[in-house]
Amino acid sequence: MKKIMIILILAAVAAAVFYFTVYEKGGAMEDLGRKMDDTLDRMQHGDESTMEKASRKLKESAEDFQKN
Question: Is-contact 48 56, C-beta < 8 A?
Fold first, then answer.
């Protein structure tokens, strides 16, 4: 019985590792879209600090939430 449990646990761990290594990677189009978003963001808001960007993103999220 112990051997079966160990095999099942190992199989579950192997499946989890496989999932995270294969399916969590972004595709080429996703990477391109993210780079385009970052470029447009820099063009619209210039060189802002991390705190300024985080603050702006929080405000935008709050505004979007209130609209819906």
Answer: yes
Contacts 24+ apart (CB under 8 A), 40-47: none
Q: Is 5 exposed, middle or buried (0-12, 13-18, 19+ CB in 10 A)?
A: exposed
pLDDT digits (tens, 9 = 90+) for 7-34: 888 889 988 888 877 776 677 888 898 8
Tokens representing 16 are: 């989890």
Sign of the alpha-carbon torsion through 33, 35, 40, 45: positive
Q: How far is residue 24's CA from residue 59's CA, in Å, rounded to a whole number?
A: 29
Q: How many residues does the chain have?
A: 68
3-state class (DSSP) for residue 8:
helix
